[in-house]
Amino acid sequence: MEEAFMAMLSSLLHLQSSLDPTSTVFSFASAASPPSSSATPSSLLSTPSAAPLLFFTLASLLSFLASRSASSSGDGETSSASASPSPPPPIPGGDYSVAAFRTLSTDHIWSLDAPLRDARWRSLYGLSYPVFTTVVDKLKPFIAASNLSLPADYAVAMVLSRLTHGCSAKTLASRYSLDPYLISKITNMVTRLLATKLYPEFIKIPVGKRRLIETTQGFEELTSLPNICGAIDGTPVKLKRSVKLNPRSIYGCRYGYDAVLLQVVADHKKIFWDVCVKAPGGEDDATHFRDSLLYKRLTSGDIIWDKVINIRGHHVRPYIVGDWCYPLLSFLMTPFSPDGSGSPPENLFDGMLMKGRSVVVEAIGLLKARWKILQSLNVGINHAPQTIVACCVLHNLCQIAREPEPETWKDPDETGTPARVLESERQFYYYGQSLRQALADDLHQRLSSR
After folding, report:
1. Interior CA angle at 366 toward 364 and 371, to 5°?
2. With 80 as the cut, is the pLDDT of residue 95 above it?
3. What is the torsional sign of CA 163, 168, 169, 174?
4. DSSP string for 74-118
5. Residue 232: enclosing H or E segment and its boundaries?
6. Residue 212 to residue 228: CA distance in whole angstroms
7. What pTM was computed for the model?
8. Which end of the chain is more exposed for a tag (fewer CB within 10 A), N or C?
9. Which tens digit of pLDDT belongs to each residue from 115-143?
10. Residue 265 CA: distances (Å) to CA of 91, 196, 221, 242, 253
């Protein structure tokens, strides 16, 4: 358009020269006006020659038409862009980028075959699409209040991809084209919300009558032991070598790497109902248990389980089971012998107790398999507990929603000496001895008579 306009302007100049060869378009104004004045439209109208007026009129018309044409062309381009937007430039990171998430979450997600859709979602974010939307809906009000620069679903997807695949903040930053500091900030915020806002909803002690009966019956079907309400175990969560530790020596666990300890209690469905992360890897399970809020609540009688049965004259309230690394107490049953050297009733009891304990071992294996960041934790030590607890919350969501269980992560076989009993625990220990013997004798009698 600019080239055509200049051609027309050149033709007009030639036309003006032929009509009035005594003046030019650039000289008539100065001839009709004082030298100090500038050329104005009124000076063009007052000149005695018709050529300047003709030139001005035609030039104005052509300029107007040129501007209209350019405007129409611009509007057409805008309209075309609105109708069919061009795809955004590719962002590094493939399936884990914001652009990939936007495409996956908006391109007819519900029209896809559900198993295919959810399998795709799990491979990227560790959760099926419906469970993912549940997490987003529950966290959205808190994320919105934080004035985060990303929408809630993008932020949750970003953090879940990091937890699922164990990515570092630096790696994820390149995939999402964001600053690593921002990635760390978003990770810390989302994991903190999961560990605080969602913890009370999805990690609950089974004190309600209905759930308590369901839990104890589930364990009894598995072990033939009555009134088990949970299985306890601890596991080290490995820290990446780049994590700064001070002092480093206390974090070395029994398997030879730096770690923090995770303690969980699970029910028969491998759902955690208590989680504690309060100790470095160098501490033993019994000490970690005694430092936990659960221990304080159990020893103080704060937790009331309204289900008491009578076994050989003993009032047996709901109890949890653990291995020999935990102390024998009235509310915590442990094996008679770690090497099977007890009497037939005792060995039978130990076998059934360890069968009940296996659910928590499997639950921990599922936890570390689903959230690979727990296989080598690459967050700051101050944010390690909330990251671990956040993964436990997400694990429970998966179990409640009956998400497919991946192949479990295998920790090395546990070794350790039987826990010693503290003086303050003597009354719980002596009563626990009586209860354990009564449970063993009753179990042996019942199974022998079948």
Report:
1. 100
2. no
3. negative
4. HHHHHHHHHHSPPPPPP-TTGGGSHHHHHHHHHSSGGGS-HHHHH
5. strand 228-238
6. 9
7. 0.77
8. C
9. 888 888 898 899 999 999 999 999 999 99
10. 42, 18, 19, 30, 21
394 within 8 A of 163, measured Cβ to Cβ: yes
For β-strands 332-333 and 228-238, DSSP reports them as unpaired
- The continuous run of DSSP H or E covering 314 comes out as strand 314-316
Most confident of 61-65, 73-77, 154-158, 212-216: 212-216
Among residues 273, 250, 246, 272, the alpha carbon closest in space to that of 261 is found at 250
Q: How far is 375 from 367, CA to CA, in rounded Å?
A: 10
Interatomic CA distance for residues 99 and 96, integer angstroms: 8
- Mean pLDDT lowest among 236-240, 412-416, 431-435: 412-416
On average, the pLDDT of the chain sits at 81
List 263's β-bridge partners, or say none. 234, 276
Cα separation of 280 and 270, whole Å?
A: 25
Q: How far apart are CA 42 and CA 73, in angstroms?
A: 33
DSSP secondary structure letters along 377-430: B-S-GGGHHHHHHHHHHHHHHHHHTTPPPPPPP-PPPP--PPPPPPGGGHHHHH
Contacts of 81 (CB under 8 A, 6+ apart): none
Average pLDDT over residues 63-71: 47
Four-residue CA torsion sign, 410, 198, 381, 288: negative
Task: Please tell me the distance from the alpha carbon of residue 161 to that of residue 371, in angstroms, as a whole number.
Answer: 9
| Residue closest to 227 by CA, chosen among 433, 430, 426, 442 | 442
Two tokens, residue 182: 């921002």
